[in-house]
Amino acid sequence: MPKISVVIPFYNCPYIQYAIESLISQIEKDYEIIVVDDGSTCYAELLDPYEKYIRYFKKENGGTATALNEGIKQAKGEYFTWLSSDDLYLPAKLSKQVQHMESEQADICYTSANIIGQTNKERQTLFFHQFNNYQDFLMKLSRRCIIHGNSVMMKMDVFSNIGVFNEEYRYTHDYEMWLRAALHYHFYHIPEALVQYRIHEGMGTNKYKEDIVHELKKLRRKYIGRFDNGII
Length: 232
What we know:
By secondary structure, the chain is of the alpha/beta class. The protein has a single domain, classed as Spore Coat Polysaccharide Biosynthesis Protein SpsA, Chain A (Alpha-Beta Complex), CATH 3.90.550.10. 33% of the residues lie in helices and 24% in strands. Strands 1, 2, 3, 4, 5, 6, 7, 8 and 9 form a nine-stranded mixed beta sheet that branches. β1, α1 and β2 (31-38) form a beta-alpha-beta unit. It comes from Cytobacillus gottheilii. This is Glycosyltransferase. Belongs to the glycosyltransferase 2 family.
C-alpha cells in the first residue's frame, strides 16, 4: 500500500504532462498518482506516455471537487495531497512534507508556493505568511484563503472525521475545506515554496471571477465569528 496518494483532477488541460513529470521526479517514492478525468474532451492523449505511472479514472464532468472526491474514494494511501493538472511539485515536496508530518504527528500540513507562467519561469512567492501565533493564523484564514490548495497534505482519517470536499462550492471547495478542518485540526506550516502555481489565460481563477466572489461571500456568511475565540 502506498504511503501517499496524489490526486490530479484533469479537465482539458494542456499542461498535464508537466504535472505528472514533476511527480515522477519526486525524491519520495512511496506514493501513487491518481488521475481523475472530469469528462475531458481534449488533451487526454497527453496521458498516454504515463500509463504505467498512473491510476486513471474517468467520470462525467462535475467540477474539481467531484474529481477530488472520486480520487479520495479510489485512494489507497495514508496521506492525501492533490496537484492541479497545470501546476508542479518541486522534487522534495512529498518527502519534506511527509517527514514533517510524521515528526510533528500532524494531521494537516501546508507549504508556500511560487508563481510560474507558461514557460515555468518563477516569478514570485505566495502564501509565505508569518503569524504572531496560531490565533493570528485562524483569524487571517477566516478572512481570506491563505493556503494554496496543492500545498496541503493531510491524513486520510481527516476525511473520515469531517467529510470530503463540499461539491456545492465549485470554485472555492479548497477554502471551504480548510475552514471546516481548522475547526478541528491544527495546521502545520513548512515555510518553503514546494509548489509551483501556474498563471495562464485559461485558468479557472480568471474565467470565473464573478462566481468565485459569490462563493466567497457565501463562505464568509457560513463561517463568520466561528474563529473569534480560537479553536485549537
